[in-house]
Specification:
The protein contains four helices and three strands; from the N terminus they run βββαααα. It has a three-stranded mixed sheet. The chain is elongated. It starts with a strand and ends with a helix. Helices cover 52% and strands 13% of the residues. The protein is of the alpha+beta class.
Length: 124
C-alpha cells in the first residue's frame, strides 16, 4: 500500500461528511478496493489546544500543523493496515474503527512528537 491521499478538513466543512466531524474527531478514513483517503480534522481540539498553549511563531504554527498531519496520516495507515488484516473475514467497519481509535492517539501525538528543545525553537 502506498501512502493515501490526505485531505485537510476545517470546521466549516464538518457537516459535509456522512459521519460528521466534531472537535474530538481526528480523522476519518474512506476506503475503496485499492486505496484509502484520509480526511484530517485541522480544527480538532488537540491540535488547536497545542497551538493555543504555546506562543508559536507563524513558521512554528505551520511546522506543528505539518507534524500533526504527517503523524495522523502515518498512525492512521498503520492502524488501518493492522485492523484490516485482523478483521478481514469479520463484519467490522475498519474505517470507523480506525477513526474512533485515532481519537486517543490524537490527544498525545504532538506532545510525543515535538520535544521541549524543539518547541523552544518554534516559539516567539
Amino acid at each position: 500500500m502506498i501512502l493515501p491521499t490526505t485531505h485537510p478538513v476545517h470546521e466549516e466543512d464538518w457537516d459535509a461528511f456522512d459521519r460528521a466531524f466534531d472537535e474530538d474527531t481526528i480523522v476519518q478514513v474512506m476506503d475503496s478496493t485499492e486505496e484509502i483517503d484520509v480526511h484530517i480534522n485541522m480544527d480538532a481540539a488537540p491540535l488547536q489546544q497545542f497551538l493555543t498553549n504555546h506562543s508559536l511563531t507563524d513558521a512554528g504554527k505551520e511546522y506543528v500543523k505539518r507534524v500533526y498531519k504527517t503523524g495522523v496520516t502515518l498512525y492512521t495507515v498503520a492502524q488501518y493496515m493492522e485492523f484490516r488484516e485482523e478483521f478481514d473475514d469479520k463484519d467490522v467497519d475498519v474505517t470507523e474503527f480506525v477513526s474512533t481509535a485515532m481519537r486517543g492517539t490524537g490527544q498525545i501525538l504532538l506532545d510525543q512528537t515535538i520535544g521541549d528543545d524543539q518547541l523552544e525553537t518554534l516559539t516567539a
